[in-house]
Amino acid sequence: MPFHSGFVCILGRPNAGKSTLLNALVGEKLAIISPKPQTTRNRIQGIVHVPKRKGRDGGQIVLIDTPGVHKPDSSLGRKMMVEVREALEGCDLVLVIMDVTRKFEPRDQFALDLVKQSGTRAFLILNKVDRVREKTKLLPLIEEYRKLYDFREVIPISALKRDGLDMLLEKVISGLPAGPAYFPEDQVTDQPARFMASEIIREQVLLATDEEIPYASTVIVDGYEEGSRLTRISATIYCEREGQKGILVGKRGQMMKKIGTGARLQIERMLGTKVFLELYVKVHPGWRDSRSFVEELDWRRQLENVVMQQSGHQRGYNETSE
Ligand SMILES: Nc1nc2c(ncn2[C@@H]2O[C@H](COP(=O)(O)OP(=O)(O)O)[C@@H](O)[C@H]2O)c(=O)[nH]1
Ligand SMILES: [Mg+2]
């Protein structure tokens, strides 16, 4: 039996459950989750190793979680949509995920249009079926969606309760071409631990704050020293206004303490070491509209810069040694 592999992109509007599905299929928490829309800001690659079973081929799915499809109104929003388009490019299959507790809206059409433009094969994933008591209610919904796009499969699931995921994996694997394993068996993501730490801190900010703060906040890890027993991390939470900073710091630093403790425990679990976490809060007015700052937040870009600096350094050395 052949080994199947390929790139599979999860697409859908904000809050449909894309990141919950990625984490459930990979079996590890790679993407942060919150009830607030636009939690995911960059594309996240998770690797699902599917063992061969009776009646099912084995394979490797490189799953790509994306920011929610929306009409952007800031540099950050535009960058998020670039991430969506880059994820769609060159993937073998798209999982269009819809929240069955919500009505079809123009925003959903926008997601479908993106798939149409890409011309990629797509499955329709109806998520949150745990919230629907009578499953027969799904039938008219399925009919309606089938008219909108020629989906190869329609699969009802609950990402949260892990219902229907075996069926989904089976269909995805058989929908992928025969191919090699792209990643070693013990690897579940390509995200650097340093970036995942900043996301874990951002998740604590999202969970602990309300109104504008979740959207106006971002996190950059400034220092990261991993040891065998202790990892030292210093990070800055950026917000847009003094008032937001006041709330993030809290009375006598209470809020900072809450965010810091919550994040530290999770980072310790991820790394398997003790963590010493130092947090700062800074105001950066209008950062969401600063293209250069938004680019700075992109870990792929950060890595490129490191490589460029290193090769620049190398050139300098060669020139003087000649
Ligand atoms: N009831 C229910 N809630 C879900 C399910 N999947 C996701 N959620 C919730 O929906 C919210 C958004 O989930 P998230 O994965 O961050 O959505 P994303 O914006 O599409 O990545 C969170 O509060 C999740 O707990 C599901 O299958 N059932
Ligand atoms: Mg998400």
Protein model, in words:
The protein is of the alpha/beta class. It is built from 11 helices and 9 strands. It has helices at residues 18-26, 75-88, 106-118, 138-148, 165-175, 193-208, 213-216, 242-249, 254-271, 291-296, 299-321, and strands at 4-11, 44-50, 59-65, 93-99, 122-127, 153-156, 218-226, 230-239, 274-283. It has a 6-stranded mixed β-sheet, with helices on both faces. Guanosine-5'-diphosphate binds at residues 12, 14-20, 33-35, 39-40, 68, 127-128, 130-131, 158-160.
Quick recap of the structure?
By secondary structure, the protein is an alpha/beta fold.
How do the helices and strands line up, and which of them pair or pack?
Layout: E1 4-11, H1 18-26, E2 44-50, E3 59-65, H2 75-88, E4 93-99, H3 106-118, E5 122-127, H4 138-148, E6 153-156, H5 165-175, H6 193-208, H7 213-216, E7 218-226, E8 230-239, H8 242-249, H9 254-271, E9 274-283, H10 291-296, H11 299-321
Parallel strand pairs: 1-3, 1-4, 4-5, 5-6, 8-9
Antiparallel strand pairs: 2-3, 7-8
Helix pairs in contact: 6-9
What gross morphology would you assign? globular
Major beta sheet, specifics? 6 strands, mixed
What compounds are bound to the protein? guanosine-5'-diphosphate, magnesium ion
CATH architecture of the largest domain: 3-Layer(aba) Sandwich
Q: What helical percentage do the residues reach?
A: 40-55%
Beta-strand percentage range: 15-25%
Measured on Cα atoms, how large is the radius of gyration?
A: 21 Å
SS content category: alpha/beta
CATH superfamily of the largest domain: P-loop containing nucleotide triphosphate hydrolases
Q: What is the highest CATH level, the class of the largest domain?
A: Alpha Beta
Strands side by side in the biggest sheet? 2-3-1-4-5-6
Distance between the termini: 57 Å
Please count the beta strands (DSSP E, at least 2 residues each). 9
Order of helices and strands: EHEEHEHEHEHHHEEHHEHH
Mean pLDDT: 91
Low-confidence stretches are 314-322
CATH fold topology of the largest domain: Rossmann fold
Q: How many domains?
A: 2
Count helical runs: 11
